[in-house]
Amino acid sequence: MSTQPSKQLETFDNAAPERDYTIHIETPEFTCLCPKTGQPDFATIKIDYVPDLKCVELKSLKLYFWSFREEGGFHEKLTNQILTDLVTAIDPRFMRVTGVFNVRGGVYTTVVAEHRQAGWVAPEAVHLP
């Protein structure tokens, strides 16, 4: 596998496709460029998903995130692009991508984008004492 930035997301088979379970991924080192000034933007990207038949391979995800370092984009566009690319790669039952962007001009931005597979219904939450 390459150690260069790449938009190609690798996948692997879900080991437990018969079960709904959540995978949480978080990276505090996402960087991109401000589309107005060209200055770097920094964010924590959080991904929560319920896989169906495929899961995303983490090193390819790291290289995918790295590919944004030289790209300009508004926070909303980038967060939704990450969601679209991941859904295209693995077709999860459910996915939420949260971009928590560091301060820019005195303003913090958090963008949340979600995907729900057609026909999938979330299981009822279990609350334990």
UniProtKB/TrEMBL annotation:
Keyword match RNA-binding: no
Subcellular location, record wording: Cytoplasm
Reactions catalysed: 7-aminomethyl-7-carbaguanine + 2 NADP(+) = 7-cyano-7-carbaguanine + 2 NADPH + 3 H(+)
Chain positions recorded as substrate binding sites: 56-58, 75-76
SUPFAM superfamilies linked: Tetrahydrobiopterin biosynthesis enzymes-like (SSF55620)
Record pathway: tRNA modification; tRNA-queuosine biosynthesis
Enzyme nomenclature, EC number: 1.7.1.13
InterPro entries tied to this protein: GTP-CH-I_C/QueF (IPR043133), NADPH_dep_7-cyano-7-deazaG_red (IPR050084), QueF (IPR029500), QueF_type1 (IPR016856)
Active site as annotated: 34, 41
A GO cellular-component term linked to this record: cytoplasm
Keywords noted in UniProt: Cytoplasm, NADP, Oxidoreductase, Queuosine biosynthesis
Function: Catalyzes the NADPH-dependent reduction of 7-cyano-7-deazaguanine (preQ0) to 7-aminomethyl-7-deazaguanine (preQ1).
Family: Belongs to the GTP cyclohydrolase I family. QueF type 1 subfamily.
NCBIfam families: QueF-II
Protein name: NADPH-dependent 7-cyano-7-deazaguanine reductase
Source organism of the structure: Methylophaga lonarensis MPL
Gene name as annotated: queF
